[in-house]
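Appendix B. Chain record.
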Amino acid sequence: MATRKPVLTDHKRVKSKLITPFNDQLGPLREVSWINTMIPELIWIALIQDRWGPHQCVELLTAFTRDVRASHADRSDTVWAALGKFEEVSGEERRAIVSNQPYQAALVDALSPLTTLYPEHPLSHAFAPERLVPNATDIDLMKRIVTDLYDRSSIFATMTQAHAVWLAFDAGRLKVSPTVALADFPRIDEYPKTDLSRRIASGVRAMLNGSFGPEGLMGSRSGWSVQFWNRGLQLEPCEDANGNRV
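Structure tokens predicted for this chain:
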């Protein structure tokens, strides 16, 4: 008869606390606002997903962010998931990185509502559309995207967060123990139909909670999140599905 593994032997003791393998790798989790901080930082990923669907979104994000990482030695393992992070790359460099790339037109198309409404967003110089004057369609689209993201556990919001986590895997910055649900990350596609996919989604949310903030794996020191909401209030108050301003 096989010997059962003692409970909690994979946890790490730090003083009087037991730390899970997942938290040990990520470090202490932080309280970061999903609405105030993470939605603005991930809005560009959400727009690409909305325009092209989750699978093509992954392909576009992977190709683009690999080029950003390859553009400079200091960026080789940076996780390019937060929109504000791109302020670390000059506008001239951004244009040079994406110029004539196969994904350029697709990303310009997906991000054009963001660029027309928020002309100073951190990727505007890289993916500027021909039309720079916003219209009602752009505002309606942005309101719908924000509403879809507002429920963090929705399928749309979960897949947006999963794309960000994939970028951490792809950059080689995220490695997880085979004992945690994130080890089966590709099965997030089944969310929310299976217990495993729901546990993976929980791991995705926990990972992002520990990754934002100025010192986080995906954190940026930009003021983009504040700019996003301030500009949104100038354009039109955003409301969630219940009519609450967000």
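Further analysis of this model is presented in Appendix C.
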